[in-house]
């Protein structure tokens, strides 16, 4: 832990830049957008399924776009790419604020998901992993604290602002906060950190052809485990009101324990970042989902109100590790020279998984498959994905293109 804090002190400027970007990505994250769900349903006359369908459509379109848009970071500086992504996310906030029809809201969702959870996170993680390839676990764990802090503070602030101003003005305020946050982030970015991509390509002999990314055996073996956490976490968070109703819990009781989720994430990020570097991402990959598996087991077995903190704390552990492990794994398997290409492809899958889970789980609920049974299904998938992940091996540069 002492080494981690020393590392954070030595590289504070670059880490602060990326951590702020992670926090600003909240405006396109499901946990934040869902806070406005009731207002949006009323304003546009949408059912729960209708709003979820628009959100899923925007998410799918953003995932498709992300596969090529994420690679643009290779052709410009980190600073310029950050400003372009920020402009995109500001446009999204303004579009949601001024939406007069459902199709405009869907377009707003598309830009929110692309700019927020997609490109803003992609920028922070890619720039950091490239800057610190040998300490990727520590660095990525440190910057992910930005999102954990936002998850602890933004929901309460957003609810209060929404109550005082209404949701349209609230989204204008979100745009202002975004501008201020990114301005602070860019001021922290050292000029020396903006290395052109050719520097990295000279270091790395690996050349991953675009078509070969999705044919790579290691990637395909790792994906089920990598995508499991965002799919399960987003789905259960999106349907937290339904979960509380099924279990007989007060929604305020569930919401109150989200601070434990945020704290757990922060502690886990600080603890597991150095562990990822010591164990290597590949060795940790088959094990990181087990805490979330325990949370699913608890949801299946019991309706006690004390399952709530256990479920959120265990989910927080796996979510924290997942947020840093995947990028560190791609560095280990593909090298930093190809990180943007690989991450943009995988991040598209992550965005798609997190956007699809609310719809899939909602359809299952409509067909009388309770969240208790869905928790059991998720547990089985976690165990299977973890078993498959044991087959991932570090490949030679020649194997990467095969």
From TrEMBL:
SUPFAM superfamilies: MFS general substrate transporter. GO terms for cellular component: membrane. It is a multi-pass membrane protein. Keywords: Membrane, Transmembrane, Transmembrane helix, Transport. Its main location: membrane. Gene3D superfamilies: MFS general substrate transporter like domains. The chain crosses the membrane at residues 52-69, 81-103, 109-127, 139-163, 169-193, 219-238, 250-272, 284-303, 309-333, 371-389. GO terms for molecular function: transmembrane transporter activity. InterPro entries: MFS, MFS_dom, MFS_trans_sf. It holds the Pfam family MFS_1. The keyword Ion transport does not apply. Residues 14-393 form the Major facilitator superfamily (MFS) profile domain. It is found in: Membrane. This is MFS family arabinose efflux permease. It comes from Pantoea brenneri. The lineage of its organism: Bacteria, Pseudomonadati, Pseudomonadota, Gammaproteobacteria, Enterobacterales.
């Amino acid at each position: 832990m002492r080494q981690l804090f020393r590392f954070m002190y030595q590289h504070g400027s670059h880490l602060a830049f990326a951590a702020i970007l992670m926090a600003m990505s909240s405006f396109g994250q499901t946990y934040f957008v869902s806070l406005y769900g009731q207002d949006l349903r009323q304003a546009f006359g949408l059912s729960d399924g209708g709003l979820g369908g628009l959100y899923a459509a925007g998410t799918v379109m953003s995932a498709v776009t992300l596969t090529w848009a994420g690679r643009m970071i290779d052709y410009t500086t980190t600073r310029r790419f950050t400003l372009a992504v920020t402009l995109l996310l500001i446009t999204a906030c303004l579009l949601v604020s001024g939406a007069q029809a459902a199709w405009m809201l869907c377009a707003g969702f598309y830009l929110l998901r692309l700019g927020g959870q997609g490109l803003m996170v992609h920028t922070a993680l890619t720039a950091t992993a490239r800057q610190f390839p040998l300490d990727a676990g520590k660095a990525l764990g440190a910057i992910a604290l930005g999102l954990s802090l936002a998850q602890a503070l933004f929901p309460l602030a957003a609810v209060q602002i929404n109550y005082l101003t209404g949701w349209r003005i609230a989204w204008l305020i979100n745009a202002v906060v975004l501008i201020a946050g990114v301005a602070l982030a860019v001021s922290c970015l050292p000029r020396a950190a903006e290395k052109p991509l050719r520097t990295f390509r000279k270091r790395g002999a690996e050349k991953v052809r675009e078509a070969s990314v999705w044919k790579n055996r290691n990637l395909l073996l790792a994906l089920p485990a990598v995508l499991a956490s965002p799919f399960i976490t987003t789905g259960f968070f999106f349907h937290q009101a339904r979960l509380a109703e099924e279990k007989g819990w007060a929604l305020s009781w569930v919401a109150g324990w989200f601070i434990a989720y945020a704290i757990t994430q922060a502690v886990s990020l600080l603890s597991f970042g150095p562990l990822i570097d010591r164990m290597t991402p590949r060795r940790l990959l088959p094990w990181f989902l087990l805490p979330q598996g325990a949370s699913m087991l608890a949801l299946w077995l019991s309706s006690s109100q004390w399952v709530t903190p256990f479920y959120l704390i265990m989910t927080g552990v796996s979510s924290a590790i997942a947020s840093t492990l995947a990028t560190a794994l791609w560095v280990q398997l593909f090298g930093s020279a190809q990180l943007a290409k690989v991450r943009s492809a995988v991040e598209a899958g992550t965005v798609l998984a997190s956007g699809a889970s609310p719809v899939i789980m909602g359809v299952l609920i409509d067909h009388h498959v309770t969240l208790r049974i869905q928790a059991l299904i998720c547990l089985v998938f976690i165990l299977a994905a973890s078993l498959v992940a044991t087959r991932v091996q570090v490949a030679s540069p020649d194997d990467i293109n095969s």
